[in-house]
Amino acid sequence: PNGRVSNVLVDGCVFEKNRSLSPSGGFAVSLANIRSSKILNCKIRNYGNEAIHIEDFSRDILIKGNVISRAGTDRGAYVRVMSGSRNIQIVQNKFLDVGNPSINVLEFLSGSVGKTPSGGISSAPSGVTIRGNTFSGSDCRYWIYMEHPAQYDISNNVLYFSGRVRSKAARAQVLLFRDGGGVRSGNVFYNNGRRGNFDFERK
Predict the structure, then answer these.
(1) Of 47, 40, 118, which is closest to residue 85 (Cα–Cα)?
(2) Smallest Cα–Cα separation from 93: which of 85, 81, 105, 82?
(3) What is the rounded distance in angstroms from the CA atom of residue 92 to the CA atom of residue 159?
(4) What predicted TM-score, i.e. pTM, was given to this entire model?
(5) How far apart are CA 20 and CA 81, in angstroms?
(6) What are the residues facing 161 on neighbouring strands?
(7) Confidence class of residue 96 from pLDDT cuts 50, 70 and 90?
């Protein structure tokens, strides 16, 4: 992450059955301090940890047309973006067979306190687009969890719980923690039981 890498293309790949127990590994695709890159049309399934991990001031990343199923079965998320990454587009993907009640499917975090490996100071991701995706499964904590979100666009997604939702940790399907403003439109939520759709926390 101390160098600059750009124009990485991961297209049409199949990743499956990674059961690594390392807390910092076991990803299908991991980008750190990467620019202008794409993850397209991949199939990722049966991952104990995150399918896609983006961190350390990566920017201008497109995640499109992928099918991810049974990720985060032990920990993590389906997709985690953190540590100052920006202009991340997550569009027209399918996040399927979600079943771990302790994970967030898409997770956007500020990151740890202090400097990142590239020398920057961790901050919340910004300029995130989540559009035209399908989410489905039996349980999770949140479909989308964002810390300090700003300049986001969450639009035209379909979010569907199948069967009875077991998780009691979450009150809603999307949590925006200290919301900094963005677009929320055209999202369709099915079978959410007693959960609300969006939750905004200020503390």
Answers:
(1) 118
(2) 105
(3) 13
(4) 0.90
(5) 20
(6) 137
(7) very high
